[in-house]
């Protein structure tokens, strides 16, 4: 049994809807297709997963400090030599900390470090990679990598 399961259903050319088993859905399409907006591109969903996972984990690991105004901004940079992959990802945690409150700053910094060192499954998977398998309609394994 899979830990997670997402189904992507085609709406039209380069326009898809991804759904989970709990009924949530998100539109996935090309950024340059005005007829398929609003939508996320696949890379934007990857970045959203990093930001969302980071935020959820910080919520748990920084319970003792006020971080209600925390924003997580995730940006990617790719160069031609990255050959169709995201080359670098920066996850920025933005929050105006109370002046002179070293305890809050330290607790939040610790939570952010733990998020990426230990608890955020998405960040750790992106950092370390995962095995990817692609099966065709008849179940034949057409690609295995990672």
Automatic annotation (TrEMBL):
Organism (species): Streptomyces alfalfae
**Top-rank taxon:** Bacteria
Give the matching InterPro entries. KH_dom-like_a/b, OsmC/Ohr_fam, OsmC/Ohrsf
- Which protein, by its recorded name, is this? Osmotically inducible protein OsmC
């Amino acid at each position: 049994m899979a830990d997670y399961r997402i189904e992507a259903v085609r709406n039209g050319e380069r326009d898809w809807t991804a759904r989970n088993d709990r009924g949530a859905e998100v539109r996935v399409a090309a950024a340059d297709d005005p007829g398929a907006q609003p939508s996320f591109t696949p890379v934007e969903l990857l970045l959203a997963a990093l930001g969302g996972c980071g935020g959820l984990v910080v919520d748990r690991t920084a319970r003792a400090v006020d971080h209600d105004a925390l924003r997580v901004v995730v940006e990617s940079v790719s160069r031609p030599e990255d050959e169709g992959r995201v080359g670098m990802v920066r996850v920025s945690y933005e929050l105006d900390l109370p002046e002179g409150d070293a305890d809050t700053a330290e607790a939040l910094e610790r939570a952010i470090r733990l998020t990426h060192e230990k608890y955020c499954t998405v960040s750790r998977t992106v950092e370390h990679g995962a095995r990817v398998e692609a099966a065709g309609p008849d179940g034949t394994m057409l690609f295995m990598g990672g």
